[in-house]
């Protein structure tokens, strides 16, 4: 099943893969079926949906893509869009994420996709990882069908995870506490998950789980991909067992969080097109405030526009970057929400909005100590924090 909003005058197509974690064994898939049925079955899906963010058809909310043909593919396969196994005696559930994408492409060709100039495969969270796993396969599929003229690109939002060491190691009991490498390792077997050939060849047999991690699969991709990633992604912190609820963060956690931002920044340095704000958040491209976030004075829609232009120009004349139109945007400030355009934070208990300083204090940020470490007056540090420098 999928949702389609046609835009007859446009030869641009945007296919969006929904996210929503995954399940990797019978027990946690049963729980998911009981508690999150819409992510396991299409039975209760609404007849229509309203597109928001990059799926909106309002130019104010979506300045650059509002006029494209929009396709929303809901996530009911629970397999990070990688599965290729049908229901069997052995397995109650079918995991067909990779096949769902192929079937949707086949059907859209008859609905106008065949004359497309650009197909942007986008997705958030598990859908963002799904983009990395499927973008080259979509390009190959269209080539095999005889549509070599369609430029296939990827936009991966909040799907660039690290296979780092957890803050506190836990046994792999459920989706939330299981270390990402272990969850994916089990998941691939359970879903009969497939990864792109070029990535698979980089690793030994049985090590295909590596291809679910952005920084390992990205160098093997042929299609251009734009990576959008919060430096302090809430889903990453959750699987790393850093829980920011209520009580102040301990010093060990605080250092862990800052280090996570550094590691993530490092993995993005060779990514040609990226947008990585130093915020604590998860998912962005379908949020209606997605135009407000800026990195170094450039908004995300603007960066995507520059990326489109650079791909268009580079087809014509080598790879000269466009002046005043940046596509590699990564915050360099070191802690969550040091960027003043970050989304508002609310106290999880009171629901009160917090400014950056309140948030950092709430997390146990010691202004005196931090000022001392940076060789600054505390008042100067507070001024810098509130202006986001």
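^ structure tokens above, recovered residues below v
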């Amino acid at each position: 099943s999928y949702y389609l909003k046609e835009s007859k005058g446009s030869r641009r197509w945007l296919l969006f893969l929904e996210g929503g974690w995954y399940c990797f064994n019978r027990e946690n898939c049963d729980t998911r079926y009981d508690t999150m049925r819409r992510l396991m079955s299409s039975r209760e899906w609404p007849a229509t949906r309203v597109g928001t963010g990059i799926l909106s058809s309002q130019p104010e909310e979506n300045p650059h893509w509002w006029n494209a043909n929009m396709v929303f593919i809901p996530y009911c396969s629970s397999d990070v869009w990688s599965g290729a196994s049908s229901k069997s005696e052995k397995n109650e559930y079918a995991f067909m994420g990779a096949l769902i994408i192929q079937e949707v492409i086949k059907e859209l060709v008859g609905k106008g996709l065949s004359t497309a100039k650009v197909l942007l495969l986008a997705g958030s969270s598990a859908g963002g990882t799904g983009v990395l796993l499927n973008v080259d396969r979509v390009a190959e599929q269209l080539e095999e069908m005889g549509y070599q003229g369609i430029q296939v690109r990827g936009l991966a939002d909040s799907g660039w995870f690290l296979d780092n060491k957890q803050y506190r190691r836990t046994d792999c009991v459920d989706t939330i506490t299981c270390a990402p490498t272990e969850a994916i390792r089990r998941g691939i077997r359970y879903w009969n998950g497939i990864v792109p050939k070029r990535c698979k060849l980089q690793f030994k047999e049985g090590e295909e789980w590596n291809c679910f991690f952005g920084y390992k699969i990205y160098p093997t991709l042929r299609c251009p991909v734009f990576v959008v990633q919060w430096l302090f992604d809430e889903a990453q912190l959750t699987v790393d067992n850093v829980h920011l609820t209520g009580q102040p963060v301990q010093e060990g956690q605080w250092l862990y969080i800052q280090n996570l931002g550094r590691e993530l920044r490092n993995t993005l340095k060779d990514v040609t097109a990226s947008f990585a704000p130093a915020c604590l958040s998860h998912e962005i491209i379908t949020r209606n405030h997605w135009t407000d976030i800026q990195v170094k004075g450039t908004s995300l829609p603007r960066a995507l526009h520059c990326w489109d232009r650079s791909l268009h120009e580079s087809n014509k004349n080598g790879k000269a970057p466009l002046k005043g139109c940046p596509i590699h945007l990564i915050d360099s400030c070191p802690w969550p929400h040091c960027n003043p355009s970050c989304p508002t934070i609310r106290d999880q208990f009171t629901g009160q909005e917090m400014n950056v300083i309140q948030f950092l204090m709430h997390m146990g940020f010691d202004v005196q100590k931090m000022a001392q470490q940076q060789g600054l007056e505390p008042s100067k540090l507070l001024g810098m924090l509130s202006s986001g420098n």
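The radius of gyration is 21 Å.
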